[in-house]
Amino acid sequence: MSLTSTPSTAAANAPEKSTRAAYKVTPARVLRSEWSKFWSLRSTWIAVGLSLVFVVAFGLIFAARYKSHITAGVTPGAQQEDRFASATAVSLSLFGVNFGQLVLGVLGVLVTAGEYSTGMIRSTLAAVPRRLPVLWSKAIVCGLVALVVGSVAAFASFGIGSRIITGTPAALALSSTGVVRSLFGAGIYLALVAIIGVALGSLLRSAAAGIAVLLGVLLLVPGLVSLLPTSWAQNVSQYLPSNAGDSIQALTRATHTLSAGAGLAVLLGWTVLALAAAAWRLMRSDA
Any transmembrane segments, and where (predicted)? Predict the structure, then answer.
């Protein structure tokens, strides 16, 4: 009688090999995960819809007011402090960006701070122990969506608004110098504001605190700077995030404002600074 086992017996006794693929965290998988979580939130759909409505609707309302101004026989600039004195089709159609930035900035805060308030961030960081890919992926997803939404809204507002103000001094065509650059500039500005919101939400880990700081930076600080002596205010205000963003969208450069390229560089600097602070706290503090 032989003591050696047959091949079929050895195979039966061998440890069962798992057929499931080994789990590996890659940047693409983290990005796909954040993309899925982003669109699973009801607040995302509401914010995207509101930002589209705000940018387009307020731009068209402003264009209609300008048209009625002209129809009434008032020459732009004839009245003191006339808001339509230097109006162009671009400035009229992008009036709603001031409102859209608030919605998309708040959305950015909620994308990160919301996970801390629900405790979901612990599951996220358990799945991605290196942590930083989570922050980069949230920033990419939110910034990309804001870029697309902002650009689409800016072009739609310009396209419809141009029909309203046809035949007026402010009328411009899409092929006019600087128009396409300004409209894409609006989309880039909204994307960077959304990314700053993501960074503030991750840094402060509170939706209320993040939204308060964001609104303060965009609305309150420019008002406080205007109280400084005139020469100081003119030198400082152009480097604020909101004013640098205005330079990116402006069709022509005004006095005491940055060029479009310099405005983009300054706003990128603010964005990198906010992300660096968020990354520092994410690596140093427990969730």
Answer: 45-64, 84-113, 134-160, 180-200, 207-228, 260-280
Are 197 and 107 in contact by the 8 Å Cβ rule? The answer is yes
Residue 249 sits at the vertex; the CA angle it makes with 96 and 105, to the nearest 5 degrees, is 55
Contact 141, 35 (CB under 8 A): yes
The label of the residue with tokens 């480097």 reads 239
Other C-beta atoms closer than 10 Å to the C-beta of 241 total 24
- Amino acid type, 25: V
User: What are the residue boundaries of the structural domains of the chain, listed by start?
Assistant: 27-72+81-284
Q: How many other CB atoms sit within 10 Å of the CB of residue 268?
A: 14
User: Hey, what amino acid is at 156?
Assistant: A
| DSSP-derived secondary structure for 84-135 | TTT--HHHHHTTTHHHHHHHHHHHHHHHHHHHHHHTHHHHHHHH-TT-HHHH
The tens digit of pLDDT for each residue in 108-167 reads 999 999 999 888 999 999 899 889 999 999 999 999 999 999 999 999 999 999 999 998
First to last CA, the chain: 65
Task: Report the distance separating Cα 268 and Cα 248, nearest Å.
Answer: 11
**Confidence tier at 70 by pLDDT (50, 70, 90):** confident
The identity of residue 220, as a single letter, is L
